[in-house]
Amino acid sequence: MEKRCPLCEGKANILYSSMYDKDYFVSGEFSLNKCSNCEFKFIEPLLNEKQIAKYYPPSEYYSYHKKSKLSILYHKISAEYYSNKNLLFNILFWPFSSLLYHYRIDPGKKLLEIGCGDGMQLEFYKKYGLRTAGLEPYGLNLTQREKNLGIERKNILKSNFPTESFDYIIMKEVLEHIPNQDAVLKKSYSLLKNGGKLIIVVPNGDGLWNKIFGKNWYGYDVPRHLYTYNPKNIKIRLEKYGFKINKIRTYDIPYMLDGSIKFYLVDKQKDKRKKHNLIFSSLSKILFTPISLLVTYMKGGSILEVEAEK
Ligand SMILES: [Zn+2]
């Protein structure tokens, strides 16, 4: 049977077969399909909520973990930079600004983060004056700190926020994990106020590391990433629900190179289902920062950020 693209109904073909979990080695084999029309990529078989759960071993998956010190520092710098409070600080970090996560510092505004993990980003948003809410279906009982940030253990589709509640909805590295893209994006649209903004960050299937590492590109992270977008097809997706695209930006982050090297080495081993013992550390991420800057400058970044408005 001919494969059809779940986004545009165009004809889709297998790009890579025999893909597998190169991070936690949960069993299963997948192929990665690419639409010949809009270039949207999707895994096959596609997993639903229940089937995908086993690929998130709670003891391993990073979003359950406390964030690394380096990651917290990165977000601290990003939030401070976008608060524009300190001119000297901004001059100092200006050369690296294209690598920073774009915090929408807009005091008094209401922001919802879908898939907020332990709430690290919400904490920065709250610190700079936004009113926060968060949804994270996976994890242990909520701590007091999480409750104070407005986090609930709920799926967006089961949330009971009134429509037009939020000025901002953010999804950072979340959309690619969600089986029912339609339902979640429609719901996000309804929860935004008129003029409200949806900020999505996903891996960029058009980036340089994708071209170099192919099936071992870290952004594929099969099968946790069900879908891979690029600047062209994310636009098609969001316009479907009535969003207006304000801005599309690509940038690079050192962990994309770091992770791609790790996947490549795993794949080159005799025993493919074994962690590679080369240690990937904070140091490699710091060393790769100048490379990420160069790749961002060349417009080959592996991260895609979209700002869409209702
Ligand atoms: Zn398509």
Q: What key phrases describe this protein's structure?
A:
310 residues, alpha/beta, Rossmann fold, 5-stranded antiparallel beta sheet, binds zinc ion
Sequence stretches where pLDDT stays below 50 over 5 or more residues: none
Largest sheet: 7 strands, mixed
Q: What is the strand arrangement across the widest sheet?
A: 7-6-5-8-9-12-11
Q: What would you report as the Rg, rounded to the nearest angstrom?
A: 19 Å
- SSE class: alpha/beta
Order of helices and strands: EEEEHHHEHEHEEHEHEHEHHHE
Tell me, briefly, the overall form. globular
Q: Can you identify the CATH class? A: Alpha Beta
Please give the number of β-strands: 12
By CATH, the topology is Rossmann fold
The residue-averaged pLDDT reads 93
Q: What is the beta-strand fraction?
A: 15-25%
Assembly of the depicted chains: single chain
> In whole angstroms, how far apart are the ends?
38 Å
Small molecules held by this entry: zinc ion
The tally of helices reads 11
Helical proportion, percent range: 25-40%
CATH level 4 superfamily: Vaccinia Virus protein VP39
In total, the number of domains comes to 1
CATH architecture, by name, is 3-Layer(aba) Sandwich
Produce the secondary structure layout.
Blueprint: E1 3-4, E2 11-19, E3 30-35, E4 41-44, H1 49-52, H2 69-83, H3 87-93, E5 110-114, H4 120-127, E6 131-135, H5 144-148, E7 151-152, E8 166-172, H6 181-191, E9 192-203, H7 208-213, E10 227-228, H8 231-239, E11 244-251, H9 254-268, H10 282-287, H11 289-297, E12 303-309
Parallel strand pairs: 5-6, 5-8, 6-7, 8-9
Antiparallel strand pairs: 1-2, 2-3, 3-4, 4-10, 9-12, 11-12
Helix pairs in contact: 2-4
This protein binds zinc ion.
